Structures are given as structure tokens and as C-alpha cells.
Amino acid sequence: MSPKKFYDIIPPGVDPNALSGKLFVIEGADGSGRSTQINILTDWLEHKGFPVVNVGLKRSTLISKQFTAAQQSKVIGPLTLNLFYATDHVDQLENVIIPALRAGFLVIADRYIYTLMARAIVRGADPDWVKSIYSLSIIPDAVFYLKAKPQILVERNFQKKNTLDYWESGMDIGYSQDMFESFFAYQRRIQKQFLLMKDEYGFQVINGNRMVSTIAKDLKGRIEQLLPSM
Amino acid sequence: MTQRIEQGKDDYPGALIAVEGLDGSGKSTQIHLIKRWLELEGYKVFFTEWNSSVAVKPATKKAKKRHLLTPTTFSLIHCTDFADRYERQILPLLRAGYIVLSDRYIYTAFARDAVRKCDPGWVKRLYSFAVHPTLTFFFQVPLEVALDRILGARPKLKFHEAGMDLHLSEDPYESFRIFQGRIFKEYQKLVDEFDMTVVDATQQVEKQQEKVREIIKEKLDLSKYKWRAQR
After folding, report:
1. Which of A58, A64, A83, A96 is the mutation pick for testing B, counting most B CBs within 10 A?
2. Tell me, what's the ipTM?
3. What's the gap in Å between the CA of B58 and the closest CA on chain A?
4. What b/e readout covers A44-72, taking b as 16+ CB neighbours within 10 angstroms?
5. Beta-bridge mates of residue B99
6. What are phi and psi of B38, to 5 degrees?
7. Contact A12 B3 (CB under 8 A)
8. Do B56 and A125 touch (CB under 8 A)?
9. If you placed Cys at B25, which of A2, B43, B139, B224 could pair as Cys (CB 3.0 to 4.6 Å)?
10. Does residue A229 have a pLDDT over 50?
């Protein structure tokens, strides 16, 4: 039993002592290998007999549909975008993550508040404001930050979708009309934010430039030590 | 970045007037009359109200109907609605020199979210991007009067409107009474903290309106907000 801690504030109606599961977070840009690794880890953990729940951005029942629609229309401003993300996060926190942890499950989060904070700050939000919003989130048992060179990210994005994503290229910010250039400018700024957060939030930086199997072995080794004894 | 604007900093040419008060305090009638008066006198006026963003309200409506909200997501989704109106309408219009009239403002969230047991400091920081109004009128009525005005007609109360999510009572009318009582208490604290202008809302509508107009004329240099081109 390891009661969970929150960054600052416990949301009303939550008992942190009842949360016996584990929360693992995988962070990293599109193309860093996040989803591939999460699939491998989920298979591995379920094979071992641990119940696993996956969460990720924009997967809340509450607003994911309206959020996507609003985002695609490109009429909403940065404040609203940040708050949509926050609502989406807290909905999953309270309705998926917390119940799963209460039931003793392992939760693997495909990105967490750190991506949301980095994205908001890069778009000009006040860092203290952003931090304060997420002060009612759960502190994970481990945060793995998959760090890959922008060149590798580009290569993997093209390999997967043959195109760069509008938002992951930061096209809404207007660094450059050229998506390729914008992608590099945006990813550099996001990486900078992640490195600034690294110590404060205790990220384990994982070299994402390596082969899939090598990264998986690395992650499994780190997670193994944190698993509840069977 | 708009968000960096300091609280209460009066560096935009427009003016913001907000009304607050309990359901049944008559504030919406009063702000409607302010709007009509200013429009007919030839001022640049824009009206906005709580929970009305076209991008967010459909989500809120669905979530309320299906009882998907917790106190925290209730707070966040209303802040998202406010932020959308704020950054697309309220702030640009203040910068363009409008008189912006707001039926309920951030204080509504402060009162309601506190009653739902959200951390008050967290809620205030959440809304810290918003400027404070030039003038906030609080329409003060005794709780019983407000309750009678709303419940007298025996309306069908909505789930959240009656505070049913707080499990105060199985009976929506009783729940509404307790809920409004708690909001009333929160409002009393906010009136002092944020220096709201209190209007005695037990008076006749026209009397209240007369007083409100006097205060507006006294506090604002209305000539600044006239349409420059003759329409």
C-alpha cells in the first residue's frame, strides 16, 4: 500500500490513502516512440498478471468530442485551449485514474500534465498560472521522458503518417509558414520546457534515439523495481 | 500575451460593468435595462452572460444532463466557457473602447465553487487571467425573498441549479433552499473582498435602475464610449 500524494491540493471527495495502485507516466513528443513503448509495456504487465489501465490526452468522456471540434475550428484562443486540456485531464483523473488506483490497478499515462504545461507555456501562458491549475494532480510513481532528436522525430512521423501534425508542429504559434521549419522550432522549445521541469518533477530521461527493443528493455528494468510484490 | 495583464489594471480604454446576486435577485432585469439605456443613448455596448460560449456550452449542457461533472470539472468547464468569452469578446472589446456588460462574472464561480468545496485559492488562481470590473453591482435581497421569487412559481428546477449534486436533500426545492443559503453566505464575503456596489434589490425595479444609472454616470466618463461616427 502506498498512499498517493497530490502536488498541492486534493480535489474534493478524494481519499489519497485509498489509492493503492501505481501510476506510470510516459512523456515525449510524437515520434518519440511513446505509443509503441506503452503497447509493449501493457502487454508485458498484463502477461505478468497485473491489471493495466491506459489513459492519454483528449480521451475524456466529458469533453473530448467538443474539444476536438473547437480545436479543429481554430477559433478558440490559447487560454481556452489550455482550460479545455485541463478539464479533459481532471475528468480522466477523477473518473479513470483515481478509481483504477483505488482498485489497485497499474495506470499507464500516455502523456500527463507535463506536456500540457509545456504546451501552455510555449504558447505564452503564465507558468505560475499553469502550475497552479495542475496542483491538484496526482504525483506519479515514475515519469519517463522519452527524449529523441528532432531529426528522428521527423523521420518517425513521416514513417507513420507521411505528414507532420499541425499542432505538433506548433503551426498555431506562427514560428514559420513552413511546417518543416516550424516543427523544429516548436519541438526545440518544448524540449527546453521539459528539461526545465526535469528536476522539479523528477523525470527519468530515457534516450529515445535507440532501437525499440533496447528502449523497452530499459523501461521494463526501471518499472520492474516499482511493481508491487506478487 | 493577454494573460499577463495584471489583475485590476485599468490599461484598456473600455469599461467593464458586472452584476452579481442570487437567482431571483433581479440582476438580469437590471442589466438588461442598463443595456437598453446605454444603447439608446448611443454608446458602444456589448452584453455577455455566464455559461454562454458557443464553443463550450454544448459540452457543459451534455455533461450536466448526464451528471458527468465533479466539483472540479464543474469549476473547470465553467472557467473554460468564461475564458472563451473573455479572450474572444470581453478583452478585445474592452481594448476597442466598449462598455462591456456582464451578467455574472468570476465572483459567481468563486461563490459556487466554494460551496462545492473546491479550494478557494485554487479557484481564484484559475481565474487570475481576468481583469476585475470597473464596477460590480451586487443585488442584495434577503435569502427568503430570493427563494420566494424563484420557488413561488413552482418551476422545474434543473439538477445543478438546485445543487442536487451536493446531496443536500432528496427534495429539489429543499436542496435549492440550502444551496442558495450557502451561496448567499459566500457572496456576503465576496461583496467586501471585491468592493462591490450593493444595491437594495427589494426596492422597485425602476428605483433600483435609477440608482444604478446614477452610479454609472458618476463612476464612468460616459462621453468616452460614444460612437464617434454618427449612425
Report:
1. A83
2. 0.92
3. 8
4. bbeeeebebbbbbbbebebbbebbeebbe
5. B15, B45
6. -65, -40
7. no
8. no
9. B139
10. yes
Instruction: Kindly report the pTM of this predicted structure.
Output: 0.93
The number of folded domains in chain A is 1
Residue A105 maps to a domain = yes
CB count, 10 Å around CB of B77?
Answer: 28
- Min Cα separation B66/chain A (Å): 10
CATH number at residue A125: 3.40.50.300
Count, in order, helices (H) and strands (E) of chain A: 9, 5
**Segments of chain B scoring below 70 in pLDDT:** 1-10, 230-231
Do B201 and B21 contact (CB within 8 A), yes or no?
Answer: yes
A contacts of B4 (beta carbons < 8 Å): 124, 126
- In a domain, residue A101? The reply is yes
By CA distance, what is A70's nearest residue in B? B55
Residue A85 has pLDDT above 50, yes or no: yes
Chain B residues closer than 8 Å to A132 by CB: 122, 125-126
User: N- to C-terminal Cα distance for chain A?
Assistant: 13
Q: Do A62 and B59 touch (CB under 8 A)?
A: yes
Residues in chain A with CB shorter than 8 Å from the CB of B93 are none
Asked, for residue A229, whether it belongs to a domain, the answer is: no
Q: Compute the distance between CA of residue B222 and CA of residue B218 in angstroms, rounded to an integer.
A: 9
pLDDT, residue B1, reads 38
Q: Beta partners for B139?
A: B21, B199
Q: Report chain B residues whose CB lies below 8 A from the CB of A126.
A: 1, 3-4, 128-129
pLDDT at A2: 62
The share of chain A scoring above pLDDT 70, in percent, equals 99
Kindly state whether residue A2 falls inside one of the protein's structural domains. Answer: no
On whether any CB of chain A is under 8 Å from the CB of B67, the answer is no
Domains of chain B: which residue ranges? 12-220
- What confidence tens digit (pLDDT) does each residue in A37-54 have? 999 999 999 999 999 999
pLDDT of residue A125: 96
| Of residues B55, B62, B116, nearest to A70 (C-beta) | B55
Domain containing residue A74: 16-224
Per-residue pLDDT tens over the stretch A113-136? 999 999 999 999 999 999 999 999
Domain B12-220: CATH superfamily, name plus number: P-loop containing nucleotide triphosphate hydrolases (3.40.50.300)
- What is the per-residue pLDDT across A89-107, written as a single tens digit (0 to 9) for each? 999 999 999 999 999 999 9
Could you report the per-residue pLDDT of B34-61, keeping only the tens digit for each? 999 999 999 999 999 999 999 999 999 9
pLDDT at res. B222: 96
A118 part of contact set with chain B, CB < 8 Å: no
What is the per-residue DSSP string for B78-111? HHHHHHHHIIIIIHHHHHTT-EEEEES-HHHHHH
